[in-house]
Write a structure and sequence with these properties.
The chain is α+β, with helices and mostly antiparallel strands and 834 residues long. The protein is 22% helix and 27% strand. The chain is built from 14 helices and 47 strands.
Length: 834
Amino acid sequence: MEERRAIKTKLIIPFLLVLFASICCSSAVDTMSANQIVRYNETIVSAQETFELGFFHPGNSTNYYVGIWYKQIPNKTIVWVANRNEPLTDTSAELTLTLQGVLILRNATNGFIVWSSRKSSTASVKNPIGKLLDTGNFIIQEEGEDINQKDPIWQSFDFITDTLLPGMKQGWNLDTRTERNLTSWKSDDDPALGEFSYGIDIRGYPQRIISEGGGKIKFRGGSWNGRRFTGIPSMRPNPYYTFIFVLKPKEIYYQYSLENTTLMRLVLKPNGDPERLYWSHSKQEWILYSVAQQDRCDNYAVCGPYGNCNTEDSPICECLNRFEPKYPDQWRDTEWSGGCQHKIPLDCNSTEGFNKYLNLKLPDTRDSWYNQTMTLVQCEKKCKSNCSCTAYTYTNRSGDGSGCLLWFGGLIDIRTFAEDGDTLYIRLSASELDSKEKSSRSSSAGREVRVIVPVAIVVLVILVSICLFYRFQRKKQQQQETIGNISRHDGESGSGNEDLELPLFGLSTILKATDNFSVNNKLGEGGFGPVYKGVLENGQEIAVKRLAKTSTQGLYEFKNEVISISKLQHRNLVKLLGCCIKGTEKMLIYEYLPNKSLDSFIFDKTQSELLDWPIRYHIIDGIARGLLYLHQDSRLRIIHRDLKLSNILLDMDMNPKISDFGMARTFGGNQTEANTNRVVGTYGYMAPEYAGNGNFSIKSDVYSFGVLVLEIVCGTRNRGFAQNENFNNLIGHAWRLHIEGRSLELVDKCLGELNNVSQVLRSIHVSLLCVQRHPEDRPTMKNVILMFGSEGPLPSPNEPGFYVGNIKHDTTQVSSSCGISADNELSISVMSGR
């Protein structure tokens, strides 16, 4: 203890001397060394005459923060805050740079860590230093390194707050999935995370948007057209600053740089308004240079789909030419949110074409598609070949125009500019096209029609009607036969006749939605067959699971999945929207989940860093509740039989949804277990009594759930996991660490420092209870959820299934680190049980 005090004294005294010297000489240090301690009102890191880093309290607030501000401007203009959501209530604080290059803000009274640069490298580095650059960027790097040749260990520019400085990148690093966007202060006196954010939305063609709490869009700056963002006409070349937009496979960002010595910043105000300001040395104040939102038409989607906002008109909303109000009564009452619709509806025929609309703000691109190498002619052909495509334009206005941008569904958030707007080509019926060619074709067609013999017309109509009637009846009969086969009793599925009430989608509808099963729309492929993303004509996104002709699965799995999930409704189960049956084509239509499957996150070195412990625990809880519904709360007890990470899909908010019911079994009445000679599932997740003897029950799913929880905690696959210390899989590894009281060594290194250790340990303990060798020892899912939700003592687990002790392996030791994976998991559809 005395030794530690002595060391601390040795550290403090030199810094007090530095402080005294700095006060006397009116200067401050420009670097921060490892183990150096910066305290409130002591040493301040500075960047020559431009910026300073230190402690401050904003406005009338009594809280304290670490931040960066302009050095020579009175009344501190804060441009970056470290602990914006973790304020200090007094001045007893220390800012320290560790030997690992981690910046730590600690309450000196109780030693509690308030904030840290948690994205720093965890590996030891040589002589890390902190340096505040003239740009306002605080970086951590190895001493002597050239910042122009090697990326820093950490930099404040990667974690921007409400201010965008010259040189900062607003956008995405797609390699690390790091998003850099402006987030407003809660108020002028409170730098905590506010209601508004300003960033680059990369769903579809990238565009700048301001969104408020809950994801609602407040303002859309639009997409980049090669010169500026289409919704911000004030972005023009000027003598003060230049700007660029970079769209690359690994990076998407906006950036600006100054052309002279004038100080300038872009700040997102607490009310959500972005302001660009410059410093006037003569007036000694910040002067407003420009604002993004200038009038009422800048509010998002004021006029609804196909509505056009124009501030020079009264009222400001009107329908685009060749369109009419969808709800005329509401439109007359200035309720424009319903928007407009085609005067003549589209029917996807070859005579449809595109009209040219000028000086527009291009529509919302969140549901768009783009290709930067196509010509405008190729772009038109691409759009015309897809019935769901409603409009197109070029992505680059420079030169003759290049690139292709397509829209699907309604065109939202359009406005007219007096000049320098963008051009949009919108799909219309043949009779509404503004072209001489169309007029010529119509006149020629009219003369041809007049010379056709009326009797021939009547005969043709009768023949066509007979053919269509026959085809309709035949198609109806085939669908009824197929659905009848699906709902007929089957001994293995355990279900009787069912009234499925499942919507049927036409093949033509699915072909349009998936662009004829385009490779670009393919999401992946499993044992059933490929899965494609599609967009229906109403704009709804879907996932189409298509039975492959070479699939090892077939009508049985198709039938089983339809019967198992057609009437299930739960927030943690994937929603089946319908099916499509046409000849040999059999498809299942599901809701589209943008984050794909859980294994693509857990077992990926980069993606796994996006899942901190609260998100992983939220996913575990959701899976448990979905299983409880299947086992107990649904109208029939359902055993999934193939529960694994790749069958857990994630929606936009990272909510888990159990999918793939092709191998499920349904139980009726009080039935709780069964036996089969047809063992199905995935190695590594199967319970021992099921894999060995074909016995399955709700406890088989509980075993799979236990394996799944271990994989989520560890970030490593169970199957293929190998150690050279007496165990041969992840379960054995977890069991041995639990016995020795070292369960925390199991935790994925990607999770870093854990704030809720007890919750992690409880999750591991529950998972070991789930994977016990004997089914009767395992808890039910109801008990699992109760154990997760309580803090009481847990029973000790018995030896798990498939655990083999005292076996040495000549394999390399595997640690619980980020991104470790082993052999690919293999699903089996048939295996004879003993």
